[in-house]
Recover the amino acids of this structure.
């Protein structure tokens, strides 16, 4: 289970004051949903169907394909709905760049930046844009993500994504476009942490709100391994990860025991130590790759 335990202060009023007076939004503005996708043929169709089924209108859906090697762009093209726009990058640029390009090609007053392996609840856009439209917030995000593929052991081990006991978060999902244009764009050099760019640059935080959404967790050892290496490469202090290797057995046992208490599924007795060993050693290899100068793009 992934938990966010930090409490981030709401400095947004000060930040907005520095940016200048913002224009009042209309009661029903166009919302641009920017989806970064790379090799998402397994889930992109389900994701787009859930976005097309939103209770909020008007929307436009901008899928930025980060040079996929599978059928992702073909599946997107097969959707005949005019609200969907596909942008294909000639080479892999990373999610930060994909989001920036999507924003540049958007027409909405509010932007959403998120992934292509989710099932969005029908009120997802409505729930998270309402405080922005009302002028109460400039950025929002959801509180939790259910596991959409919980029957898969790797996916269940990755756990639910829960923003725990906080009201503010450093990663926006929805943001006013005029605010993004003033404090953006995303910095792709941050790798895994590129989605925190706006917070790191300005201190901007997002209101955390409840709504329905489910995440397709990584469901193979290879996908878990590759994700972990990317996180390891993005670590600014790779030496710390490398020198903590002797402590890895204790880390694996602690994480496995703690997670089993939260989700006492009988197969986890033997599986969680395997899962957390893969995760830790993927971080370790990623840290070594960073020292070797490998790019942070996933």
């Amino acid at each position: 289970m992934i938990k966010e335990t930090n409490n981030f202060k709401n400095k947004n009023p000060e930040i907005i004051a520095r940016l200048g007076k913002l224009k009042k939004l209309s009661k029903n503005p166009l919302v641009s949903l920017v989806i970064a996708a790379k090799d998402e043929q397994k889930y992109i169709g389900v994701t787009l169907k859930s976005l097309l089924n939103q209770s909020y209108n008007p929307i436009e859906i901008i899928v930025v394909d980060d040079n996929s090697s599978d059928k992702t762009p073909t599946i997107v093209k097969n959707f005949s709905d005019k609200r969907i726009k596909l942008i294909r990058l000639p080479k892999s640029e990373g999610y930060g760049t994909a989001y920036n390009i999507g924003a540049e090609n958007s027409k909405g007053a509010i932007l959403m930046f998120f992934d292509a392996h989710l099932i969005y609840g029908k009120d997802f856009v409505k729930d998270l844009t309402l405080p922005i439209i009302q002028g109460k917030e400039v950025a929002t995000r959801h509180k939790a993500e259910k596991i959409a593929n919980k029957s898969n052991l790797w996916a269940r081990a990755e756990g639910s994504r829960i923003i725990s006991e906080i009201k503010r978060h450093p990663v926006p999902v929805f943001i006013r476009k005029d605010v993004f244009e003033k404090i953006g764009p995303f910095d792709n050099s941050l790798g895994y942490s590129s989605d925190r760019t706006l917070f790191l640059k300005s201190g901007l935080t997002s209101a955390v709100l409840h709504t329905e959404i489910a995440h397709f967790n990584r469901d193979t050892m290879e996908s878990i391994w590759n994700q972990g290496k990317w996180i390891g490469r993005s670590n600014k202090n790779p030496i710390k990860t490398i020198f903590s290797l002797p402590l890895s057995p204790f880390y694996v046992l602690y994480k496995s025991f703690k997670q089993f208490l939260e989700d006492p599924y009988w197969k986890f007795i033997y599986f969680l130590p395997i899962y957390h060993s893969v995760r830790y050693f993927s971080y370790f290899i990623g840290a070594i790759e960073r020292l070797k100068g490998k790019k942070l793009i996933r």
The chain has a mean pLDDT of 93.
